[in-house]
Amino acid sequence: MARKYSVKLSDTVHRMITIYFVLGLWTTQSGHRTISVSQLFYFVSFCLFGVSVIIEACTTENNDDCIFLVVTNLICLVQVGRLYNIIWKQNRILDLIRTASANGTDDYDTFCIVSAKLNKLMSLATYFIFATLFLLVVVVGLPFIKKELIFDIAFPLDYKNSESGFYVAYTFVAGIFLLSITCILFASMLWFIMLNFVVKYEILGNDFKNLGVSGTEEDEQKNTQTLYLQHLVESIKSLENINGLLEDFSSNFSYLFLLQIVTSSICICGGVYTLAFSSHANLVQDGFYFTVLFYCFFDTFTLLYLGNEIMLASDRLSYCLFESEWMEQTQSCKKYFLIVVERLKQPQQLVVGKLFPMNLRTFTAIVNRAYSLFNVLQNFRE
User: Fold this and answer.
1) What is the pTM of this model?
2) For 236, what's the count of Cα atoms within 13 Å in the CB-facing half-sphere?
């Protein structure tokens, strides 16, 4: 039976999906696994950029530049992982977006709360994307005027002494920077899916509270015990569906999350280090350092914050179940109630690599490791 209030798919997500189709990152052929020319071009370009950066990091004699180039290469590695998922998991991503966003409730207050949460997240994601895009446009546009790249890369043409070589190298780097925005869009899609899991658990918690409450004329004709048990069975089925969908989401993107968590400490540390010890003679370069630091910190925090929210939302289900009218039920119904309570004692959470739970404790550990690495690099520099 359809819910009275349904949560619609965000217009922002619709626009993101449209951008992917327009750019050729996604194709309209459902189930088609052959990679198009545009998809192959994007992926190879990103890989070549990563290779050029790491070669420059290995050959440069400036240790500070080497550290920044290593950080840039790690960010590029994460972006390549995202681009791989974008291209090769198009159908699964679209299915997850449609399934995760299919939420509905009969309670108007709950509908207003979850809708406000989704709108706030998409507004925040929009601000983050535009802020990153603005900073990238600035740091990409000004070097064109100054006729020098923000940082050196290994390139087959002599872009430092040849004007034509510079324009080719600049076009290559600027194109990669702008293409990275599409990877940020993908990160925002993952945030949207994760927040929808929070919404699903909150709606389910509201259903637990209202077990046995008649909502239709058909329900009013049943006695309280029968209605309570029927609603309990329906809620258990919903719980299993949500947990199964969450497990599917985790299995599809666990390696990507693992890559991001493992590299995040180094990226945050490297961003702080390069910003702290740069000469500050080049404001454009300092702006790019700040962009890198801002991106690494915010991206990692948002991902782990939403993972923490999923854990808290699922953990509140047992309390919501206790708020129902379970004391007035029969002994057999109370037995079912206790079984469900035991099932809900273990909250659901995303764990990547069987090592890193996606919660705020992990983010705190990442920041602590970044601080420790920064002290090591500072002592080494001195």
Assistant:
1) 0.90
2) 14
